[in-house]
Amino acid sequence: MDAQTAIRNILTTGEMIGMAYLGDLIDSELMQRPHAKCNHLNWQVGHLIASENSLVGMAWPMPSLPAGFKEKYAKETAASDDPSKFATKEELMAAYKTQRAATLDILTKVSAEDLDQPTGVEYAPTRGQLISLNGEHWLMHAGQWVIVRRQNDKPVLI
């Protein structure tokens, strides 16, 4: 298996699990926190989208996020429970699809040597890791989404 395929598999697995858990949640459920000390799901998803833009954008051009998106999902907004301060689920999914499509497009065009290039970033020392972190990051947060699903009597999916 080549590097591009391995990284694509990481992204695909994160997306499959993440989208399964988010699929039937509605906007009000995305505003729930799995625990009082956790960020609500809407903030987490926005954070993931902004992170993908930022991480991949360290090495390659990425499409712009919607106006004000980064500010909505900055650390300073995580404590807010006001839905009007955040994107709707539809807006989140549209932003996600745009960013992920760009990431996957980049992955199809780069060489294994380009993926091995150093970044100078401690937590992602190669360009390939800047991309693969996005699948892993979604998986890290998805565990919290299961709690909100259970709180809302959603079916067990995985």
Word description of this protein:
The protein has 158 residues and is mostly helical. The protein has a single domain (3-151), classed as Four Helix Bundle (Hemerythrin (Met), subunit A) (Up-down Bundle), CATH 1.20.120.450. It is built from seven helices and two strands; from the N terminus they run ααααααββα. It has helices at residues 3-22, 27-30, 41-57, 69-72, 89-109, 112-115, 127-151; strands at 118-121, 124-126. The protein has a two-stranded antiparallel ribbon. The longest helix has 25 residues, at 127-151. The two termini are 26 Å apart.
E-strand count: 2
Provide a count of the helices: 7
Assign the CATH superfamily.
dinb family like domain
Largest sheet: 2 strands, antiparallel
Domain module tally: 1
**How much of the polypeptide forms β-strand, as a percent range?**
under 5%
- Spatial shape: globular
How far is it from the N-terminal to the C-terminal residue, by CA? 26 Å
Strand order of the largest sheet: 1-2
Q: Which fold does the CATH topology refer to?
A: Four Helix Bundle (Hemerythrin (Met), subunit A)
Low-confidence regions: none
Give the mean pLDDT. 96
Query: Helix- and strand-based class?
Result: mainly alpha
Fraction of residues in H or I helices: 55-70%
**Radius of gyration, taken over Cα atoms and rounded to an integer in Å:** 16 Å
* CATH architecture group name: Up-down Bundle
Order of helices and strands: HHHHHHEEH
Instruction: Name the CATH class.
Output: Mainly Alpha
